[in-house]
Amino acid sequence: MYETIKCELNEGIATVTVNRPKAMNALNSQVLDELFDAFTALAANADVRAIILTGEGKAFVAGADIAEMSKLGAVEARAFAKKGHSVMNLIETIEKPVIAAVNGFALGGGCELAMACDIRIASAKAKFGQPEVGLGLIPGFGGNLRLPRLVGKGNAKYLIYSADMIDAAEAYRIGLVQKVAEPEELIAEAEAMAAKIAKQAPIAVAVAKDVVNNGYDVDMKSGSNYEVNAFSLIFDSEDMKEGTAAFLEKRKAEWKNK
């Protein structure tokens, strides 16, 4: 079905793999289109409880496709950036939790792709960076926006202005990743985390993701109102009734995702 990505589903966990290893999984227009299509389909699939995003070979995604970008004028570049933002925004807002299993280089658009995910687990050999200014560019897929939100304004400015790469340990120290795993254990760690999340009430996870995303950049009063509304509305869900009943009856809950 796809030429530049692979998509597999196993026991409620979908794994999406960017599959252009000869190009270090660089993001060209086709990859972006296929990622958008795949995540749109996964969003609509009730069997999917969690998603893992990773890369084939030595790279997670080594950046946007420079060969394609070098030929663009301002009008085409705007369309390319909007396409990238559409993919990142979809991943960030999809109701399913998305875990980035960063197996290697996550540079430029690759770092931006990882940052759009909910949780990042990095191989001990992974490298992160926003090297665009070294090419006379700036991050164009949300890097200027998400990086300071994740690691603070000072750390973000340092990484963007210097074009430096950092290793997994430093990425963990500054909060860019949540866990570091040995390379051979990376996918197993991501699958274990996905499986743990998949056991929870799907609608509760989806609503919590929405509240975290939408409450992060607003004042406490607005955020509190948003959370109170979400908290109260979930009481009409079948999953809330099932979850509380299962707790009181000391049995395993059977989620309906409704």
What is the total tally of β strands? 10
State the share of residues found in helices, binned by percent.
Answer: 40-55%
Q: What is the C-alpha radius of gyration, as a whole number of Å?
A: 19 Å
CATH architecture of the largest domain: Alpha-Beta Complex
Strand content: 15-25%
The stretches of 5 or more residues where confidence is low (pLDDT under 50) are none
Measure the end-to-end span: 30 Å
What's the CATH H-level homologous superfamily of the largest domain?
2-enoyl-CoA Hydratase, Chain A, domain 1
The succession of helices and strands, N to C, reads EEHEEHHEEHEEHHEHEHHHH
- Sheet having the most strands: 6 strands, mixed
What is the total domain count? 2
Key features of this structure:
258 residues; alpha/beta; 2-enoyl-CoA Hydratase, Chain A, domain 1; Lyase 2-enoyl-coa Hydratase, Chain  A, domain 2; four-stranded mixed β-sheet; 11 helices; 10 strands; 48% helix; 17% strand; globular
